[in-house]
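Annual report, structural modelling task.

Input specification for the fe (ii) ion complex:
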Amino acid sequence: MRILFLGDVMGRAGRAAIAETLPRLKTDWRLDFVVVNGENATSGVGLSQAHAQVLLNAGADCLTLGDHAFDQRDMLQFIEREPRILRPLNYAKTAPGRGHQLFEAKGGRKVLVMQALGQVFMKRPFADPFSAVEGVLRSHPLGGLAAATIVDIHCEATSEKMATGHFCDGRASLVVGTHTHVQTSDEVVLPGGTAYLTDLGMSGVKDSAIGRDLQAVLGTFLNGMPGKFDMANGDALLEGAIIDIDARTGRAKRIERVREGMSGPAQNALR
Ligand SMILES: [Fe+2]
Ligand SMILES: [Fe+2]
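The model returned the following structure:
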């Protein structure tokens, strides 16, 4: 089975790129299941109900969130009514919603998705992500009920993301990092059969500072004063990864980075 996971959607430009492009990609790339990280889709801070609907209507089968999960207050209620949206497993003991969920992919096969927040360099402390992920993996062995298991590790540190990939190796089909908005080039299928990529990148404006206006961000770096970072305007690109999974074993066969909207060598054999 073939899965597409798109990185953090940054504001209006990212939403528009997904609404315009994802329906075509689902057909052209014969996708069985699509996950989108939506934690920044509403002006860079959280995900509103209305904007979640835009991403779901475009063809996302599951939306993950992150440290910005509840920055838009209507998500506190909406997540209880919309099982396709996940917040991090270890967000807070009293958080509404779920951190993992079994979904049905095209053709009826089951896909397990979970998200955890890392602890290193994050602005707020969160509970241990490794024990949170361990609990879900133990109750859902790979090759069992779910044809694929997907782990979104949402954090700053590349080391913490990579450690999570190896921690899950042989027990998940895919471990991908989100949150830093810059795509890394270390995609690999680990020895136990888990596909891994340190960061998917973002769906947002190409010429920007991780999706925000370049001049605003640069101004703050140059004068040392806090500034208001508006969202960038301009052409958006979609970044993420496609993963082919053996649905009998749950092991990944290959992983390929996606940078849709860039000219150059991003296009290749899988599509
Ligand atoms: Fe984040
Ligand atoms: Fe983000």
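The radius of gyration is 17 Å.
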